[in-house]
Amino acid sequence: MPGLIPRAFIDELLARTDIVDVIGGRITLKKAGREWKANCPFHGEKTPSFTVSQTKQFYHCFGCGANGTALSFLMEHDRLSFPEAIEDLAARAGLEVPREGGSTADPRDRQLDDLYAINASADQHFRDALRESERAKDYLKQRGLTGETAARYHLGYAPAGWDGLLRTFGSTDVGRQTLLTAGLIIERTPDAQRNMSAGHYDRFRDRIMFPIRDTRGRVVGFGGRIIDDGEPKYLNSPETPLFHKGRELYGLYEARQELRTISTLLVVEGYMDVVRLSQAGIHYAVATLGTATTPEHLSRMFRVTNDVVFCFDGDKAGRQAAWRALETCLPHAKDGRQLKFLFLPEGHDPDTLVAAEGRAAFETRLETALPLSEYFVSHLAIDVDLASVDGRARLAELAKPMIARIPDGIYRELLIERLARDVRMPATRLADLLSRGNTEKTASSNNAPMTRARLSTRPTTGRGSLISQAIARIVQCPEAAGAVRTTEALRMSGDRGLDVLADLIDTAQANPQLSSAQLVERWRDRAEHTRLTELAAAPLPELDVAAVSRELVANITRLLSEAGPERRWNELIALAESTGLSDEEKRELTELQKQRRPATPPTT
Q1: Which residues fall within 8 angstroms of residue 132, CB to CB, at 6 or more apart?
Q2: Hey, what's the torsion of the CAs at 599, 565, 440, 63, to 10 degrees?
Q3: Which residue among 85, 238, 312, 473 is least crowded, i.e. fewest CB within 10 A of its CB?
Q4: Three-state SS annotation for 280-307
Q5: Which of 43-47, 70-74, 126-130, 438-442 has the lowest mean pLDDT?
Q6: % of the chain residues with pLDDT over 90
Q7: Sheet arrangement for strand 58-61
């Protein structure tokens, strides 16, 4: 793909950049020991929790979780694309940004570049088709959308034919394979009885197309809404190297382009809800992509704002979806954050309601949204007789495992106080009873895999935390990679987290000059990038390379001794019982279940 910025140049640019100068030119930093502090520019606060490390060349906010390198800061704060952030830093350093005429050396990078390119081409193809289809344009007009709104969200149309994309972009084997990997076409299985030969056909046909864009504005996937009656009404891209529906939020890119500061995020269920609300002037709506809210969704939201309102239909299905969202939110219910729930009148969704009553009336409804604490207690109390001692005891018992998942802090204490009013017990006494014998918090954190492990480097026996500790040591002290003799055993374990660890070690060993920021930037286009930036910001107890190296080797030795399918099975089972599984983790559990032998009954 022409025009790529060489990785070596990005490394050199970061080596010449002082993150303190970059951030200090935009907000006021004050020296605090070895680091610099300030009020976070990404969320409102009175006490500084935003730190900048000159040693790591990283920033981190302990309030909202924002973190990253100088490039990340420019992209988040100045709303720049990645190339624009590169250009900004290069101009500061007096450098000219080189462009490669060919592809990058890393096959993984080449594949991602090809997928971004085919998605961009498909996006333009669908937009062109919309302009030519009176039927598709009439449908959008009937839904109340203007041409300006359609253009802002890059709405398009996939014609009814079976091979529109195939004929346009799949004339070669390479083109067809790229379309297939991007999820834009489907491979057809030969069927002799139906006289069908092997081949491919377009995934999206006769649908209004909604491109899903990442934080840099690149199309990573699509959603398609059927025009006439039919099933499924909405169809999403499948999981691909670019697209993971458990992480993406439709409309977040557009919201950040429209609003300099996002004080609240409104979480709705559909693409059309987001687009119609934006047209009405409510630019802060986002949608999960046909799936329940995940921890990854919440992490993305809280990087933007501390106030999140979930909006659901008022029917039974809507209330069930709201309760699932609340359960996912509990580990994220920290001091300073507001989580609320709004239920719409039955028969309405945000799209139809804002069309019927307008922006002002809809936003008035938002002011009546239930805080998490009120919804939490009222929902648990629905089938409980609060007039009886037994009923109040039942309410406390129902709340106990859920409160255990809320982080320690003022918010948790206030929620217990709210619960204590209905239980009719002193809050301090109730808190003591709720904490007795509750091991769920420990179990959930100790059994989480690398992608969900807590941001902690304290000693623990949990495997997920051990993987996080090892990765934290590499990203914070790349020199420690030299102490690892080989990564072959890590790769043979079959563990996703250990594969990431092995990749990091190999990269650091092959490029011993890399700093923490340079190492993490190499993962920007991979799914693990967000987690790596979090681990890079975590404080390490060790102070020198030798100590970090010893602890890294000890971590790896311990991890390899515990590797195996049975361990991963137990890990996923524990995760399913605590926070639930992603689609990918469910598939992994199914495969492990097939591999497991029947358990040997205990002898008596």
Answers
A1: none
A2: -170
A3: 238
A4: CCCCCEEECCCCCCCHHHHHHHHCCCCE
A5: 438-442
A6: 46
A7: 30-32, 35-38, 50-53, 58-61, 67-68
pLDDT (tens digit per residue) in 22-68 = 998 888 899 988 889 999 988 877 889 999 998 889 999 988 888 89
Question: pLDDT tens digits for 169-209?
Answer: 999 999 999 999 999 999 987 765 665 567 899 999 999 99
Distance CA 395, CA 402 (A): 12
Q: Residues 532, 536, 538, 543: is their CA dihedral positive or negative?
A: positive
CATH class of 7-93: alpha beta
The answer to whether 41 and 27 have CB atoms below 8 angstroms apart is yes
- Fold classified for 252-377: Dna Topoisomerase Vi A Subunit; Chain: A, domain 2 (3.40.1360)
Q: Report strand pairing: 219-226 vs 234-236.
A: antiparallel
Mapping DSSP onto H, E and C, the string for 495-509 reads CHHHHHHHHHHHHHH
Residue 506: both structure tokens together: 């190999």
Residues 6 or more apart in contact with residue 322 via CB below 8 angstroms: 310, 312, 341, 343, 375
Architecture of the structural domain at 107-188+198-236? Alpha-Beta Complex (3.90)
For residue 601, count CB atoms less than 10 angstroms from its CB and return exposed for 0-12, middle for 13-18, buried for 19 or more. exposed
What values do phi and psi take at 99, rounded to 5? -130, 135
Q: What is the average pLDDT across 320-347?
A: 91
Measured between alpha carbons, how far is residue 582 from residues 235, 464, 579 in Å? 18, 16, 10
Residue 234 CA to residue 297 CA, distance in Å, equals: 20
Please tell me the distance from the alpha carbon of residue 261 to that of residue 476, in angstroms, as a whole number.
31
SS3 of 389, please?
A: helix
Which three-class secondary structure string do you get for 77-103? HCCCCHHHHHHHHHHHHCCCCCCECCC
pLDDT, tens only, 97-151 = 887 654 444 566 678 889 999 999 999 999 999 999 999 999 999 999 999 999 9
Q: Which pair of structure tokens corresponds to residue 602?
A: 């205990």
Sole residue written with tokens 């107890």? 541
CATH 3.30.70.20 fits 381-438, yes or no: no
